[in-house]
Amino acid sequence: MFPAIIICLIILGIEFIIGIIANGLIIIVNCTEWIRSRKLTGCDMILTSLGISRFFLQWTIFINNIFFALSPVMNGYCDIWRNLYIVWMYLSTLSLWFATWLSVFYCVKIANFSQPLFLWLKQRISGLMPQLLMGSLLISLVIYFPSVNVIDRKYIDNSMNNLSGNTKVECSHNVNSYSDLILFMLEYSFPFFIFVVSAVLLITSLWRHTKRMEKNTNISRDTITEAHVSVIKGLIAFIFFYISYFMTIVIFLFKIFAHSNLYFIWFCVVVMTAYPSGHSVILILGNPKLKRVAVRALNDAKCWLRVEAS
User: Which parts pass through the membrane (predicted)?
Assistant: First the structure.
C-alpha cells in the first residue's frame, strides 16, 4: 500500500506543478498585456480571473491533501483545516462561475443567431464582463454562506463532544445529511446549467453553419467552423474535468465511500487535483497568444537545460 501512496503523491506533485505553471502563465501574460496597453479584452479579463482563482484553488487543494495525509497526527489543527475547507469550496464555486462566463463569452462571440437578445449581447458582452466577474465574487459568497454555517456548526459541535479528558478530537466535516447534499448540489447546479446551455447553443450554431456550408459551397471547413470546433473541444474537456472533480468532492464531503480502501481514496484525490491544472492547459493550447508564449517559454527552458547539461 505504501508504494501506491508514493505514486499518488508523485502524480499529485506533477499535477500541482503543471497547474501552478499553467495558471501562472495565464496571469502573467494577461497582466503584462494589461500593463502595456492599459486595457484587457473581455476574453482576457475572464481568463485572468479564472487563472487567479485556479492558482489559489490549486494551492488550497494541495494544502488540504497534505492535511488529509497527516490527519492522524494533526488533531490540533482542526480549525486551520476547516478554514482551508471553506476557502476551497468558495474558490471552487468562483472558478466555476468564471468558467461559465468564459463559455458564455465564446458562445455569444462565435455563435450566429438572429434573436434580438442574442444580438444585443453580442454587441455588449465585452463591456458587461467587469460587472459579471465582480458579481460572481458576491454571488459565490451569498450562495455559499448558508453551507458554511451548516458545516461550521456541525464541525464545532462534533469537536466539543469529543473534548473530554484524553479523548481524541476527530477532525472531520459532518456534511452527510440530505439537506446538506441538496444545498451543495444547488450551489453548483445553476452556473453549470448556464455553462451547458451555452455549450448546447454553440453546438447548435455549428450544426446550422455546417448545413449552410454544405448547401452553398463544396468547402467543408472554414474559419468560422474552425472557431466553433476549437471552442467546443475546450467546453467538452471542461465538462469532463469538472464532472469528475464534482463527483470526487461529493465522495469526500458526504463520505459516500467512507469504508473504501486507501487506494480508492487517493485515486479520487488525484482525479480532483487534475481539474484546475488540466483544463487550464487546454485553455492555453486553445488560445493562440497563450500558446505562443508557452511554446517560447518551453523552448527557452530546453535551451537552458542543454546549457546546464553541457
Answer: 6-29, 55-73, 85-108, 128-145, 188-207, 235-257, 263-286
Say which residues have a Cβ less than 8 Å from residue 83's Cβ, sequence separation at least 6.
none
Closest to 295 in 3D by CA, of 306, 310, 284, 308: 284
**Under a CB-based contact definition with an 8 Å cutoff, are residues 279 and 26 in contact?**
no
Domains of the chain plus CATH, in order, are 2-161+170-301 (1.20.1070.10)
| pLDDT tens, residue by residue, 175-211 | 555 666 676 677 777 888 888 888 888 888 877 767 7
CA max distance for the chain: 82
Rounded CA Rg of the chain: 22
In this structure, the number of other CB atoms found within 10 A of the CB of residue 172 comes to 17
Helix (H), strand (E) at residue 43: helix 42-69
Which pLDDT tens digit goes with each residue over 176-185?
Answer: 556 666 766 7
* Terminal CA-CA length for the chain: 40
Tens of pLDDT, residues 59-70: 988 887 777 666
Q: From CA 156, how far away is CA 152, in angstroms rounded?
A: 6
Which alpha helices (H) appear in 77-168, and where do they start and end?
Answer: 78-110, 116-162
In sequence order, the 6+-apart residues with CB closer than 8 A to the CB of 246 are 188
Cα 13 from Cα 19, distance rounded (Å): 10
At residue 109 the predicted structure's pLDDT band, cuts being 50, 70 and 90, is confident
Rounded CA separation 264/270 (Å): 10
Q: DSSP assignment of 224-250, as one string? A: HHHHHHHHHHHHHHHHHHHHHHHHHHH
Contact 202, 107 (CB under 8 A): yes
